[in-house]
Amino acid sequence: MKISREVKTAVLVLSGIILLIFLFNYLKGESLFDSPNTYYTEFDYNALSQSSPVTIKGNAVGKIKDIVYDYETGKTRIAFTVNEQLKFSKQSRIRLYETGLMGGNALAIILSDEGEQAKSGDFLMSEVEEGLVSSLSKNFSGVGDDLGSTLKTADTLLVNLNNLVTDQSEDGLKNAIKELNSTMKTFKSVAISISAFVKNNDDKLASVLNNVDSITKDLSGITKDLKDVKLSETIAELDKTLASVNAVMTSVNNGEGSIGKLLKDEGLYDNLEAASKEMEELIRDIKLHPARYRRILSKKEIPYTPPKEEDRNN
Question: Of 121, 148, 156, 255, which is most buried by a Cβ count within 10 Å?
């Protein structure tokens, strides 16, 4: 069966119309496939727009369907739709609240456990929640007074700072800034000099760094060698030796052993001193009377000759 061009055109046009209706209702917040329930409420003023959300406990459950001004009562009548699966009491209240500074307004269903179940077409009582913008508008006069006081204080502070900057005295801020500028110029000159020095001595600095690296490696090797020598055992042996020497010195100090007796025996000291004196007298006598000792010192045996009377007197 061959479909004519006219039928194809008609089907295409109808499809476009249906799609256009669907998009139009979608932009309005309505769905062609759902059958939501419609409820009504009213406010003293209008702060909503069509397609504004209807929420319950923060969850979107519906949309604003229609906004009509009632000329008899002077109030704004709101028609909104919610999903038919949502069940709530007729005593529930519809609250107008702000979704944010730039987010507009929305309706929230405040559930109530009392009363019979609401049906589509019922009228529900409303309330308005005070938001951030309305709170600021009410308290703006107080904020304005505080802001004026703050601005006056800031103006006084700026005047004082201006007087401080324009101070021409020796301790004024202007002179301090000049000194700071001069100091910064000096630092800049020093930095340029250091940069030139580093540039001119780049090879020498590299050589110094290489030497430092070599020294570091040598020190690492020395440290390894000292570790291999078992320095701790050597120190332990030295400690034992020092302990032995300390014991010997303690024994000597207590007068034990030959050295201790020699150092501590006063009689031995007196005998040595007496012997020393006698040796000194003997040497003196040999110098004064060598003839007396000639027989002893001569290689030939010389008979003993008693000394004369004169020699005895001497």
Answer: 255
